[in-house]
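Record type: monomer structure entry
Structure origin: computed from sequence
Chain ID: A
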Amino acid sequence: MRGKRVPPEKAAAPGASGARRFSRLFIHFGLGRALGLGLLAGLLVVQAWDPPPLRTLRLKTFDLYQTLKPRQAQPQPIIVVDIDDETLAAFGQWPWPRTLVARLVDKLTALGAVVIGLDIVFPEPDRLSPARFATGLPQGDEALAVALSALPDNDAVLAASLAASRVVLGEAGHPRALDASTAPPRVASIATLGPDPRTFVAAMPGVVRNLPVLEATARGVGVFTLLPEQDGIVRRVPAVVAVEGRLRPALMLELLRVATGQETLLVKSDAAGIKSVVVAGIEIPTDHEGGIWVRYGPRDRGSTVSAGAVLRDELQAGALAGHLVLVGTSAAGLLDIKPTSLGIAMPGVEIQAQLLATILAGDHLQRPNYAAGAEFLLTMAISLVMLVLVPRLGAMLAFLLGGGIAAVLLAGAWFAFSGAGMLLSVVYPLGASLLVYGLLVFHNYFHEERERRFVRGAFGQYLAPALVDELARRPERLVLGGETREMTLLFADVRGFTGIAELYRGNPQGLTRLVNRLLTPISRDIVQYKGTIDKYMGDAVMAFWNAPLDDRDHAANACRAALAMTASVARLNEERAQEAAATGEPFLPLRIGIGINSGECLVGNLGSDIRFDYSAMGDAVNVASRLEGQTKTYGVPVLVGEATAAAAGHDFALLEIDRIRVVGKQAPERIFALLGGPDMTSSDAFLAFTTRFAAFLELYRLGQWNLALERVSGLHSFTGILPVVGLVEAFERRLQELQVAPPTPDWDGVYVAGAKG
């Protein structure tokens, strides 16, 4: 069997077909998607790197969660004994003699404290102990020195108080290793389940320990050092830390262990890091480094008592029965004030109390070890959805898609926090997808502009037949120059052209045919009523009357042409709807906005000596263009200026709808909606609507927003008879906005229009 003979030039270039296939694939994939994919890759690299600004943004998001929904206040058996400025003023500066601290411990024990946690460290012997004090006496006071040496040592007094109570001492982390004590450290028994947690937890080179005599009599020792984040805010407290290769518990965990009579803490971990710690059967979730997230709540002033009040016996007997007591300081001079997630600065002992309240309430915050990976996949998934769908959707659908995704993610993150205390940040996934979305929208806009330029170039070579005839009769006019004439100008533009162009992204010929189908009938309508087509601007057209040919009825003819154009567009939409139903293709109706205005203009051949156009310019032209743009604002297809309405007479259903001040003009302009021809003018519905709308307009201009809103809402009964539904809804929206944000007292009832509405 013979095969088909392959031309030598094709057989000689096997790589060419591959290049063509790649080219076709690239064209199908699209430049916009390729750029978006590159941007996404860079964003994912940044997310995996997790630089400090990104971490700060994530943490600020978690702060916002807590600010919006802090931990609910509820009674807790926690009391903070505060060595405040008032106490220091009454009992002396810090450090106190250990005998005074022992007295405080004794009184707290007598008041019924279950356990006492000291957010204080006692690393050196008390310089005020009698024996140490005696060594500093001058010679000649040997008898006094002997008597002082016979008195009990202050540290021994405190040790005796600790032995008679249930006290947990605190110790502070230190950035360098310290000289080892002669006594071995007092360390609680810590069991582990999973990989060695020492590879994950925060490592401290050393700790500032308490005196061995004090450690020996205390029930437990815990680290109270707080580790603020990079922005200085305390959000997490390490549950355990590694010091010289050994795990040491946090002060609060030791407090709970001693209070419940437990011997051991349990640390659970997996390959990703620490998962939780367990004390007295309470499992406390942590981050992968073993940090416990503090869920801050409102400060309960009733749960804090002054140490001075305790020392002065101002508390009732049994006042601390059943309570866990934390002793610390809020004195400004001792520099133990830290910023928190709620934006409130708290003393360190208060933060420890907040942590303890979080644990006891079971109102835990948790950021699972898989959270970072889930957020990474979320960034990738959302951005890929954008890459696939945005180029296929119209502008509005793409906007709704992005808004819907954002709403779902934000709601999901909030419900995860409020319902389960989960700390998930969707800020970066949303921000990354927004950047990808913005790139795609920019590319679509650029592509659409290129198509619009193509449409303008394709039709820019055509002139209005009347102008061709005039130039054929009078070729001397084919020179630069012009004349001033009273004219009527018309601007028409397609609404929602971006969404329509999106349907033809891969089919520019189809878009060209569609624009041709639109411009052909409306151009005929303009010419039929003696208009001159100035130019086509993509999907827009500019025309004028009374030039180059005289037309005494130019205002009325422009209005007739506008009504004919809207009817032609309606017929075209019916045809396209039937075609779309037959082929199953998507259908977006075409809608045009038309602005008409009359006035003096300069008309003639304008341009340069190598190229010029027969066109018009002047204030009336600008106003007509602005009126076309305002059809979208007022929800009507045709807007007419005051001069045109006066010149057109009573043959048209013209309704005064507002006074506006357009860009470039100081004087306000009365504008009219062109609703129909002579048949509508004499109808009862139009006459009744005109009367009621005028009454509404008077209330509106007087600034009586509520009454005006009632009047305009009552006009909905006409929307099934007259083409005014958009107009009524537009004023309803404006009045609702004015009720919320009224204008200044000097408001004159004039609406200030934007550049193009």
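Annotation 1: Residues 1-15, 454-464 have pLDDT under 50 and may be disordered.
Annotation 2: The radius of gyration is 41 Å.
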